[in-house]
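Quick illustration, no need to memorize.
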Amino acid sequence: MSPFEVIVVGGGLAGCEACWQLARRNIPVTLIEMKPLVYSPAHRSPLLCELVCSNSLKSLQTETATGTLKQELSLLDSLIVKTAFCHAIPAGNALSVEREAFSMEITEKLERHPLVRIEHRLIRCLDELSGHPAILATGPLTHPDLADDLIHRTGSDALYFYDATSPIIYADTIDMSVAFRGSRYGKGGNDYLNIPLTQEQYEKFVDDILGAKKVPLHSFESVSYYEGCMPIEVLAERGRETLAYGPMKPVGFVDPVTGKQPYAVVQLRQETLSGNLFSMVGFQTKMTFPEQKRVFRSLPGLEHAEFARLGTIHRNFYLNSPKVLTPKLEFKEIPGIFLAGQITGVEGYIESTALGLLSALFCLMKDKPFYPPPPTTVLGGLYRHVTTPQQRFSPMGANWGLVTPLEGKVKRKEKKRVMATRALRDIREWEMKISELLQDKNGKISHYLSNDRLLP
């Protein structure tokens, strides 16, 4: 191995982004991925960058934090964001991708890259990394052996939460005479299918959920769900109207048959470019497979639904990053090992990608002056979240609350737009500073920032 080689463990979004950022700066990388030799409870595909939960990468609108974060990552030449746009499918104001095509292109690009070597094997402990600089991007489903090793080495209790996936339905088994296309208030076009429910149908559905058999927890597990991905049965247990005010909220919809707003709505999001698969939006669940089929087929329009995937629940592992990491995302007690992705305590595909990108840059800055991303950017806000000590550290997705507030008075309607403009300005300046810092041995500056790299 070259003494400058970096090992990246984990072929998810964070790991692949870290590989790309290193390789494009002429750093040899070995990517170690346990699939297809070993699969986690939620993974099925041998490809890199498998999207386990939803196929949605959240909002495209710049006034949202996730929309601005995509712009920031695009300006930093993110492989994940660029490829996602190449395989985007209709999803209104959100960026959704065709899963297999997206994963296939990432896999092929890294397999073909002359500076990337891919090894398929399981890392059970950090001793196996042989003292090389390494980025650990094993994600929320880190293998139990490696998780135990991390807990032992950090001397800190690991944290975890439970994450659940939504069912995916074959489009040709949905009764289109019942479902109608549209988005709330007509915003986002007609990329979603919607199934209207009367109050009687809604009440029966809630009863079915509450009475359904659930997957039992293991004896060593305790429940700590992440609020952003709450199983529908947990929501239903909080109150009979919780679903109607949450994922089944009917506000902004008009049933074309009755001309009135339904009592509740089941929304289905397109999963593939061909439109042959739809996922149930917000319907994460831990009901048993037979019960899911029974309960969901009781809904109007889904009586004959066939499922390409049923919902599952799994334990997601992450570490108390502010306690165990340095400001460079390097383990305090294990020099040379950096943490990346969801295991750091961020939530979401794009957020995981962002921490993969940062870990690669910080790895290269190890013996150089350190410049973290500005807290006025969404990237900087996420970074600050995983490096700032907190009374109770828990996963966080991109949001404007993580970003430094604006100075002076700004009209409420203009606030997010102004914050987005400031973020993109500041990320440009930071990228230029980092690129000059990480110039190659010939003195050539690696950055090539231009407005052409902004997303459409």
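The chain has two domains: 6-162+315-453, 166-311.
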